[in-house]
């Protein structure tokens, strides 16, 4: 990946873009981040590419353009694209119950009251549908939320930041189906393992394992040669967490094993490793309406549907979602089929454009696509969790204040 156009030619002010470097260099200099890479494109050309700090502090290895990063939940848009490719082939309708392909979800039950050890449940009043998985409205959850008795049940079953050793995606999906839903399908929004279940749905519908589908149907056609479920350790940036005592980034090798080698299960919700160059190609494919360099995977109408707010009544996440962690703010943002969607910049208190769609990953990676300005931005680092610092909010301001035409 390299700079392809001068900022001024892309309607960006180079002096103002330099504020990005100064701002985030402080994060490295005071020890909050190990290192980072930022890329901004306009009208399909890379206008700003900058990196600073180390991909591995202890080994003294700098961040480079081809550094491999755990992108965690930035895997979710890839899985959503895979599902929508099958949708375009007529394999299913978005309103179809997933139990037609995943019979373990034939009779879901919903938590009503009680503890995680003695929950009281009731039958779901409607089936989990495909669009529920795509929009995180299925009633599934994450163990790491620590906000509901069902979250505790996920943790007790071995699902907090990963899955029990030895379980493949099919086995994980069967385990999740045994646990109660947090709410009736379609009634609320809750960040969850829904995209992992969607990945299993892709496997059953396509007849391929998720890694094979991604490789053959998405990565190879788009030229994403360095994106996969896991990579060799020497290719991968080290993973860090914030030390609560010092505020500095501290290496966490046990958690850093995520992304090293071939995993037991292919997490469509958070299992991919990628590079800035590869994910740049993915964002450009979406910005260009499902096509890149003559290869079309989705129609423009499908991408537009995915980047539309699907929350009932066109409300935002603040009105429809549970006030828990997600990779984006809730005020002013809706949710589409795999992405957050900015519906009200004023309510969101952001310089970004209405219609921007985006997501991020647990290690503080992030991307967004602004169709109105033909602009994309990406940020890569390796600090868990992504809620540690307001990196994404600051990056948006710094990018958009540099946009002058």
From TrEMBL:
Span of domain Beta-lactamase-related: 20-388
Cited Gene3D superfamilies: DD-peptidase/beta-lactamase superfamily (3.40.710.10)
UniProt xrefs under SUPFAM superfamilies: beta-lactamase/transpeptidase-like (SSF56601)
InterPro entries: Beta-lactam-related, Beta-lactam/transpept-like, Diverse_Enzym_Activities
Pfam families, sorted: Beta-lactamase (PF00144)
Highest taxon of the lineage: Bacteria
Name the UniProt record assigns to this protein: Beta-lactamase family protein
Species assigned in the record: Amycolatopsis acidicola
């Amino acid at each position: 990946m390299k700079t392809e156009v001068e900022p001024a030619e892309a309607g960006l002010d180079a002096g103002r873009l330099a504020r990005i470097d100064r701002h985030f260099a402080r994060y490295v200099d005071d020890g909050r981040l190990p290192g980072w890479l930022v890329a901004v494109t306009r009208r399909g050309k890379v206008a700003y590419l900058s990196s600073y700090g180390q991909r591995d502090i202890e080994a003294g290895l700098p961040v480079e353009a081809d550094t491999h990063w755990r992108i965690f939940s930035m895997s979710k848009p890839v899985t959503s694209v895979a599902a929508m490719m099958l949708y375009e082939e007529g394999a299913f309708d978005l309103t179809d119950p997933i139990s037609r392909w995943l019979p373990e979800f034939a009779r879901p039950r919903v938590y009503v009251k009680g503890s995680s050890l003695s929950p009281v449940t009731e039958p779901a009043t409607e089936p989990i549908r495909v669009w529920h998985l795509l929009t995180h409205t299925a009633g599934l959850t994450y163990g790491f939320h620590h906000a509901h008795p069902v979250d505790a049940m996920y943790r007790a079953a071995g699902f907090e930041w990963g899955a029990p050793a030895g379980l493949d995606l099919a086995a994980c999906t069967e385990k999740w189906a045994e646990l109660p839903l947090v709410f009736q399908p379609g009634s609320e929004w809750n960040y969850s393992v829904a995209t992992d279940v969607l990945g299993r749905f892709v496997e059953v519908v396509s007849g391929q394992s998720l890694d094979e589908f991604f490789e053959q149907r998405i990565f190879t056609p788009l030229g994403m040669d360095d994106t996969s479920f896991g990579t060799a350790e020497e290719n991968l940036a080290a993973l860090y967490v914030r030390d609560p005592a010092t505020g500095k980034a501290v290496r966490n090798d046990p958690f850093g094993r995520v992304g090293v080698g071939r995993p037991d299960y292919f997490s469509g919700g958070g299992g991919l490793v990628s590079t800035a160059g590869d994910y740049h190609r993915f964002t450009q494919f979406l910005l260009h309406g499902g096509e890149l360099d003559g290869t079309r995977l989705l129609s423009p109408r499908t991408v537009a549907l995915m980047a539309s707010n699907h929350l009932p009544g066109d409300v935002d996440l603040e009105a429809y979602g549970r006030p828990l962690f997600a990779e984006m703010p809730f005020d002013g943002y809706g949710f589409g089929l795999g992405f957050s969607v900015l519906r009200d910049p004023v309510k969101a208190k952001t310089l970004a454009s209405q219609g921007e769609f985006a997501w991020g990953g647990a290690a503080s990676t992030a991307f967004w696509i602004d169709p109105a300005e033909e602009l994309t931005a990406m940020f890569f680092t390796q600090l868990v969790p992504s809620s540690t610092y307001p990196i994404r909010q600051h990056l948006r301001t710094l990018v958009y204040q540099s946009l002058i035409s």
